[in-house]
């Protein structure tokens, strides 16, 4: 088994709003990788599956996935299908700024 790719950056990562949203069309899936930021996906068409830390999860229209930092994950597209999904990557800091800045929760 090959080591998974380690993704270290994404577009907008070093800006004041470190979030990147894209729409992707996967004909052949996406190879195993991990990263130190958060990622979610929302499938809008096609079918396949995602393996997260060795566990297989189906992906069809309406599937929402949320991957935590350092989780090894890989996407597989079913034969003859194109998996179309929205993908969002962002730093944990994006969730924590309001707490840090205000001195209070919420």
TrEMBL record:
Residues 29-102 form the AraC-type arabinose-binding/dimerisation domain. InterPro entries: AraC-bd, HTH-like, RmlC-like_jellyroll. It comes from the Bacteria. Keywords: DNA-binding. Transmembrane segments: none annotated. This is AraC-type arabinose-binding/dimerisation domain-containing protein. It comes from Paenibacillus eucommiae.
